[in-house]
C-alpha cells in the first residue's frame, strides 16, 4: 500500500471525524422529541404530509403497533414496486423501451430495494425504465433507509425510557428521517456529484461512433440523484450495471472518496446520536469505537491484500506501484482509482450493507474477497447499514453484557436496564436467524444441479461465490461476487426470501426488545454493574462479534477463501 | 400465474411476520399496567 493510498484512508477518517459530531448531534435533536434545527423549514412540509396521510404527529405507538405499521408500509411498498416493474412498458418515461420486467426478476428486485439490499440481477441500462428508476427504486432507496433508522431510534428509546408503554410513532419517525436527514444531505451530495461529472438528465441513451469505427451506446438518466441516496442510504443499487465502476456514476478519484464518505457518514454518526440521547457520550463512543476498529482493520487488511498483487500472475511480472504503473492486483479494477482505493471502497461497502461496488469483488485476491465476505458475516455492524448497523451492534452489546455477567458474576444490565431471559431469547433468535438462512440456502443450492449451474468457477472459488450471494442477500448488503448467474427463477426466489427474512425477522426482534426494555425501570449502577462506556467494553464487544462470526462461519471460510489462498500459494 | 404466486407469497410473508410479532409479544409478556405512554421522562441522571 503506497503513500497515496494511506493518505486517502487518513483523509477519509479525518472527514468522518469532523462530520460525526455534527450529524450525530443533529440527529439527536431530530429524534430527541424537542425542537430541532430548521424547524421553520421542515415543520410545515411535515405537517402537510401528516394532514394528507391522517397522521397524528404527537401520537405514540406500542412496539407491536409500531411493528405492524412497519410491516403494513413495507407490504404495500413491495407490491407497488412489483407492479411498477410489471407494467412499466405502459407508463411514461421509458425512452429505451425496456419492456415488462419478468415476474421472478421483478419479485427479486422489489424485495431487494424494499429491504435496503439492492441486490441486482438485472442490468440497469436495459431492464428498467427511467420512471421505474425514479419513482420505484429511488423512492425505496429513501424509505428503506428511513425504516432502518426508525428501528434503531426505537431501540435507543427502549434503552432510554423508563416505564414506557410506547416506543414512538413509526409514521412520524419515517417522515422526519426522510425530510430532515436523507433528503437534504442527498440534494447537496447530488449537486456535488453532478458538479464533478456524474450525469443527470432524462434523455434516451446516446449511440456514438468510437475511434475504432464501432458503435457504442452510452447510458443517460438521472444518475446523480440516484447515486447520492444510493450511497448515503447504504443502498447500493446503481442505475448502471457496472455500478460505481461506471465513469458516469463515479468519474474521478475524488468522487470515489466522496462516495465512500457518504456510505459511512450516517452509520458512524448514529452511535454519537445514541450517546447524546442517553446523556452519556461514553456509551456512544464505546459503540462507535467497536465499529471503527472492525472497519479500520478490515479496510487496511483488504487494501493490503489488493495492493500486494495477484499471485496467479507468472513470476517476474512487475506489480509494484511506480510513477507509470498503478500496481497491485488490478484485475477487475478501474485504473483511475487503483487497487487499494478500490479495496477501501469494497471494505466500506461490505461493512455498511451497501451493494455498491467500484471494482469486481470476484477479482479480489482470495483473502481480499474473504475480508469482504467476513464484513458481511459480522451482521453488518462495521459500521453497518443506516440504522441496522447501530441496532445490530446494540444487540451484540446486550449479548456482551450477558456473557460478561455469566463469566464474572456481574449483573447483566445495559444502561441500567436488566437484560433478562426474555431479552436473551430474542437476542439468541436474532444471532441465529441470518446464519441459518445463509448456510441453509447455500448448502441447498450447492447440492443441486440447478444451483451449481449458476457458478462460473469450480472449487473453492465457486463455493465462495455461492456463499457470498446468500451472505450478501441475507445481511441486506447487495454487493455481488460476480461469476454467478443469479437471474434464474430459483435464485431470484431464494435470494428474495433470504432478503425478506434477513431484514424483517431481526427488525421485529429489535422492536420487541425495545418494547420490553422500555417498560422497565432503570436501576441505579452498583458495584456489580459492568461499565459499558469504556474502552474495555468496546474491546469486549469487538471480541464477542469476532467470536460469534468465527464460531458460525469459520468452516465455510476455510473451505472457500482460505483454501483458495493456499492453492494459489502451493 | 407467476404474478399470482409471487404476490400471494409476499402477502403471506408479511402476514407471517405479523404473527411472529405476536409470538415475540408472548415471549416478553404483555404486562405494562404500571407504564405510561412516553414513559417517566428522559434518561436517568447518571448511567455510569
Keywords:
heterodimer; A: 570 residues; mainly alpha; two-stranded antiparallel sheet; 18 helices; 63% helix; globular; B: mainly alpha; 1 helix; 0% strand; disordered C terminus
Largest sheet of chain A: 2 strands, antiparallel
Spatial order of strands in the largest sheet of chain A: 1-2
Separation of the first and last Cα atoms of chain B: 60 Å
Order of helices and strands of chain A: HHHHHHHEEHHHHHHEEHHHHH
Quote the beta fraction of chain A: under 5%
Explain this structure to me?
The complex is a heterodimer of chains A (570) and B (48). With 570 residues, chain A is mainly alpha-helical. Chain A has a domain at 388-568. Chain A has helices at residues 3-31, 39-53, 63-86, 103-114, 124-127, 130-160, 170-195, 223-232, 253-277, 281-307, 339-351, 366-377, 388-408, 421-446, 449-452, 459-474, 489-518, 535-568, and strands spanning 206-209, 215-218, 413-414, 417-418. In chain A, the strands form two sheets. Chain A has a two-stranded antiparallel sheet with strand order 1-2. A two-stranded antiparallel sheet of chain A has the order 3-4. Chain A is globular, with a radius of gyration of 23 Å. The model of chain A has no long low-confidence stretch (mean pLDDT 94). With 48 residues, chain B is mostly helical. Helix content of chain B is 56%, strand content 0%. Chain B contains one helix and no strands. Chain B starts with a helix and ends in a 20-residue tail after the last helix. The model of chain B is unreliable at 44-48 (pLDDT under 50). At the A-B interface, helix 3, helix 4, helix 14 and helix 17 of A face helix 1 of B.
Amino acid at each position: 500500500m503506497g503513500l497515496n493510498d494511506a493518505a486517502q484512508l487518513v483523509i477519509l477518517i479525518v472527514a468522518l471525524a469532523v462530520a460525526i459530531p455534527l450529524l450525530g448531534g443533529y440527529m439527536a435533536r431530530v429524534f430527541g422529541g424537542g425542537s430541532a434545527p430548521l424547524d421553520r423549514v421542515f415543520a410545515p412540509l411535515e405537517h402537510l404530509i401528516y394532514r394528507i396521510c391522517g397522521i397524528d404527529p404527537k401520537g405514540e405507538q406500542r412496539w407491536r403497533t409500531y411493528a405492524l405499521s412497519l410491516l403494513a408500509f413495507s407490504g404495500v411498498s413491495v407490491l407497488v414496486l412489483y407492479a411498477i416493474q410489471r407494467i412499466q412498458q405502459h407508463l411514461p418515461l421509458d425512452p429505451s423501451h425496456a419492456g415488462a420486467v419478468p415476474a421472478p426478476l421483478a419479485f427479486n428486485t422489489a424485495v431487494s430495494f424494499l429491504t435496503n439490499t439492492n441486490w441486482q440481477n438485472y442490468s440497469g441500462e436495459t431492464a428498467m425504465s427511467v420512471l421505474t428508476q425514479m419513482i420505484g427504486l429511488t423512492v425505496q432507496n429513501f424509505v428503506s433507509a428511513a425504516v432502518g433508522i426508525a428501528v434503531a431510534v426505537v431501540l435507543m428509546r427502549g434503552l432510554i425510557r423508563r416505564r414506557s408503554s410506547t416506543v414512538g410513532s413509526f409514521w412520524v419517525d419515517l417522515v422526519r428521517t426522510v425530510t430532515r436527514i436523507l433528503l437534504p444531505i442527498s440534494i447537496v451530495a447530488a449537486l456535488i456529484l453532478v458538479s464533478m461529472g456524474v450525469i443527470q438528465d432524462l434523455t434516451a441513451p446516446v449511440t456514438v461512433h468510437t475511434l475504432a469505427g464501432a458503435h457504442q451506446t452510452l447510458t443517460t438518466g438521472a444518475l446523480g440523484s440516484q447515486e447520492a441516496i444510493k450511497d448515503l442510504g447504504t443502498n447500493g443499487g446503481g442505475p448502471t450495471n457496472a455500478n460505481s465502476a461506471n465513469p458516469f456514476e463515479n468519474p474521478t478519484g475524488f468522487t470515489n472518496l466522496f462516495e465512500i464518505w457518504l456510505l459511512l457518514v450516517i452509520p458512524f454518526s448514529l452511535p454519537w446520536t445514541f450517546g447524546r440521547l442517553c446523556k452519556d457520550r461514553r456509551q456512544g463512543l464505546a459503540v462507535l469505537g467497536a465499529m471503527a476498529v472492525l472497519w479500520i482493520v478490515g479496510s487496511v487488511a483488504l487494501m493490503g491484500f489488493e495492493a500486494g498483487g495477484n499471485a496467479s500472475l507468472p513470476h517476474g511480472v512487475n506489480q509494484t506501484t511506480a510513477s507509470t504503473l498503478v500496481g497491485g492486483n488490478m484485475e477487475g479494477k478501474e485504473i483511475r482509482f487503483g487497487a487499494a482505493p478500490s479495496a477501501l471502497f469494497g471494505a466500506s461497502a461490505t461493512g455498511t450493507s451497501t451493494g455498491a461496488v467500484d471494482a469486481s469483488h470476484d477479482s479480489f485476491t482470495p483473502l481480499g474477497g474473504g475480508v469482504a465476505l467476513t464484513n458481511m458475516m459480522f451482521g453488518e455492524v462495521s459500521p453497518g447499514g443506516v440504522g441496522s448497523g447501530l441496532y445490530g451492534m446494540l444487540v451484540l452489546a446486550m449479548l456482551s453484557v450477558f456473557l460478561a455477567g455469566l463469566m464474572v458474576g456481574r449483573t447483566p444490565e445495559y444502561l441500567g436496564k436488566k437484560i433478562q431471559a426474555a431479552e436473551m431469547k430474542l437476542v439468541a433468535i436474532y444471532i441465529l436467524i441470518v446464519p441459518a438462512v445463509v448456510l441453509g440456502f447455500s448448502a441447498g443450492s450447492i447440492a443441486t444441479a440447478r444451483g451449481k449451474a449458476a457458478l462460473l468457477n469450480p472449487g473453492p472459488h465457486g463455493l465462495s461465490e455461492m456463499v457470498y450471494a446468500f451472505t450478501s442477500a441475507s445481511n441486506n448488503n447487495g454487493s455481488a461476487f460476480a461469476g454467478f448467474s443469479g437471474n434464474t427463477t430459483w435464485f431470484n426466489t431464494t435470494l428474495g426470501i433470504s432478503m425478506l427474512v434477513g431484514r424483517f425477522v431481526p427488525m421485529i426482534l429489535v422492536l420487541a426488545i425495545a418494547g420490553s426494555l422500555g417498560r422497565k425501570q432503570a436501576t441505579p449502577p452498583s458495584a456489580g454493574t459492568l461499565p459499558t462506556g469504556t474502552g474495555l467494553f468496546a474491546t469486549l464487544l469487538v471480541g464477542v462479534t469476532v467470536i460469534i462470526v468465527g464460531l458460525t462461519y469459520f468452516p465455510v471460510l476455510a473451505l472457500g477463501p482460505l483454501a483458495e489462498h493456499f492453492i494459489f500459494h502451493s | 400465474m407467476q404474478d399470482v404466486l409471487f404476490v400471494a407469497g409476499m402477502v403471506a410473508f408479511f402476514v407471517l411476520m405479523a404473527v411472529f410479532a405476536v409470538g415475540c409479544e408472548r415471549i416478553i409478556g404483555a404486562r405494562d399496567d404500571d407504564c405510561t405512554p412516553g414513559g417517566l421522562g428522559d434518561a436517568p441522571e447518571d448511567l455510569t
